[in-house]
Design brief:
Layout (H helix, E strand, L loop, with lengths): L1 H20 L4 E2 L6 E2 L1 H28 L6 E6 L5 H13 L5 E6 L2 H8 L5 E4 L8 E15 L1 H8 L13 E3 L9 E4 L20 E4 L2 H9 L5 E4 L4 H5 L4 E5 L5 E11 L6 H13 L9
Parallel strand pairs: 3-4, 3-5, 7-11, 8-9
Antiparallel strand pairs: 1-2, 5-12, 6-10, 6-11, 6-12
Length: 291
């Protein structure tokens, strides 16, 4: 009897939702009702809301016990080098009671994490920065264009006086790369109208991956060419598994500033303000802070 009452209550609640929004959550034409496209979308969002409600309840209990909420950070994948880790480690050593919740993202996705309140402070490049943001330059990373040495040998074999041994910094014409995929890490921002990439050839194949580790693995297997953060491929450059190249009329190498970023008008927690000030002190370029 109790089961019947519960079933009737759930059925009534579902019908009330369908009537409220003018949609069908279930397809009832078959023996067992199945979710419609609208029903599936509603169900997925409901799971997110239930999870967030549980997180909020857990936070309330933690605060009642005197446990501070963690400081949420978003790091650009390309920014995670020794400099970044040393700064975070120094902060954590000085303030061990502050819990850090760290996520990574890419390109415009880093700033989107701020606007969607997924983090309080982000560390990344200048993609998406505008008047909404305050930021300070922390350090710079070196970007370098590389290929597998076997790929480089095949690219240069038809040039005048080809070398049997691939030469680091070899000059490559853009046309020589058109048939070889340029490997790019996808822009993770859901609502960005741009793909976020500034350094791409106007012609040629492009392959997209989700992270730099996959990108590096594809490069090592000769599946394309790419610009890479030098700190991610240091050992591969040293042992010759990847070779730097200079592409004609293309920014093959440059330095990319990495910033600490927050929203100007967002209320900062005590942990966030402390992290911001301490990280500024670690930087020699704190005068770059946008007021």
């Amino acid at each position: 009897m109790l089961f019947i009452k519960l079933s009737a209550g759930i059925s009534a609640a579902v019908k009330a939702l369908e009537a409220q929004y003018g949609i069908s959550l279930f397809d009832r034409d078959s023996y067992r009702p199945t979710l419609t496209t609208e029903g599936h979308a509603f169900f997925q969002q409901s799971k997110k809301l239930i999870s967030q409600a549980q997180q909020l309840e857990n936070l309330g209990h933690d605060l009642a016990k005197g446990i501070e909420a963690p400081l949420h950070l978003c790091l650009s994948q390309m920014s995670v080098n020794d400099d970044c880790m040393m700064r975070i480690k120094a902060f954590q050593s000085q303030y061990p009671e502050t819990s850090l919740d760290i996520m990574t993202d890419h390109l415009y996705g880093v700033q989107e994490a701020l606007t969607k309140n997924k983090c309080e402070i982000a560390i990344g490049s200048r993609y998406g920065l505008d008047d909404r943001h305050a930021f300070v330059e922390l350090y710079r990373i070196d970007m370098i264009t590389v290929v597998n040495p076997e790929v480089l040998a095949s690219l240069t074999q038809n040039q005048t006086n080809p070398s049997k041994t691939p030469i680091s910094g070899a000059k490559i014409k853009q046309q020589q790369l058109y048939a070889l995929p340029q490997i790019l890490v996808s822009n993770t921002a859901a609502n960005s109208a741009e793909n976020g990439h500034r350094y791409v050839l106007p012609t040629g194949k492009r392959w997209y991956v989700n992270d730099f580790q996959t990108k590096k693995t594809m490069l090592l297997h000769g599946l394309g060419w790419a610009r890479m953060p030098k700190h991610i491929i240091g050992s591969e450059l040293e042992n010759g598994q990847l070779i730097p190249i200079e592409v004609e009329n293309f920014t093959s190498q440059n330095q990319v500033p990495i910033f600490m970023i927050r929203l100007r008008h967002q209320t900062q927690s005590a942990q966030s303000s402390l992290f911001w000030e301490r990280m500024k002190r670690f930087s020699d370029t704190s005068d770059n802070l946008v007021k």
